[in-house]
């Protein structure tokens, strides 16, 4: 095989999600798609809000000749301006267009940020459990991931962070609302984290950046919006997308927002914009950038996700599972009834239920269920979850 040794090890490392995907395809072929209960992927099942289609039709009918043209690597100026005004309100921070860079989804945003910030050997500190791609993203740019535990309810553990953030740390990467746990980090924790990072930056003699990955920001079941990191720390960057809140994951549209008081602002902007270009993204998809200004206040109907969360959580609890009630995102992260989550996920496969072992997210002893699926999948799977629990107990 001609592929690099590194990619060979990566393919092995990525194998759990891939295995579930392949297992799902195999089971669907044998039993029919309706008889397989697939909770393995965070692929939103709700359609985009109707305004997305309306805006697309409008822009195509009235669109400028430059609709499909190259543009500045940072994105369309008018889109960045409208987004900055929206973000200034949302985050209570005076962002301007130059603080916003349009990207190919949150994944693109994270890679651009890490390309701009990391030197070989730098560490990216991440609370676990975490979105599994982070390890690859850090290594894409010469860095390495260092994981820190969270508390029993998956909140930030400030003592663990204090112990983990050191001279090699360049970035602390958080994700709230979180995939896979659904937890939201509260304002007190973010305030303490900001203080910790100021102190650690002084000792390290370089700024340690706080990067907040927040594609689920609008998918919350609490009365209050998640607090903004911009309120608590200046060397802060937000990476996000419209993949989940507008159900547009295939369109690859997202952005980076940087704190207006981040150190060395001009160099940071320049580095992010150049990274967007030389990573081969060039610019975020044009058509999406044209329609976004009309969609910033929009979101899918989050009450539908809440109903799915409640139904699945209730069914699992009745079957004897123990599970944290997540205030955001569209994942449940129940405790595995067996110590070995991989073995338990195999029991679920016997019931034609596809889940991902927590080990794949740095959270052994748990498993992840993406409940952004239709209601029949949830109803159909509940007897299988009960049988798998019985088998695990016997
Ligand atoms: N970050 C987290 C926590 C995610 O769950 C995902 C996708 O599932 C991404 C980033 C990537 O999002 P996007 O599709 O916008 O690149």
Name some characteristics of this structure.
394 residues; alpha/beta; Aspartate Aminotransferase, domain 1; Aspartate Aminotransferase, domain 2; 2 domains; 7-stranded mixed β-sheet; 3-stranded antiparallel β-sheet; 13 helices; 12 strands; 12% strand; globular; binds pyridoxal-5'-phosphate; pyridoxal phosphate binding
What's the quick description here?
With 394 residues, the chain is α/β, with parallel strands linked by helices. The chain contains 13 helices and twelve strands. Helix 8 (187-204) links the parallel strand 5 (169-175) and strand 6 (209-213).
Set out the fold topology:
Elements: H1 5-13, H2 15-31, E1 37-38, H3 50-62, H4 77-91, E2 100-103, H5 105-117, E3 123-127, H6 133-140, E4 144-148, H7 158-164, E5 169-175, H8 187-204, E6 209-213, E7 236-241, E8 254-258, H9 265-278, H10 286-291, H11 302-318, E9 331-332, H12 341-350, E10 353-354, E11 356-357, E12 367-370, H13 375-393
Parallel strand pairs: 1-10, 3-4, 3-5, 5-6, 6-7
Antiparallel strand pairs: 2-8, 7-8, 9-12, 11-12
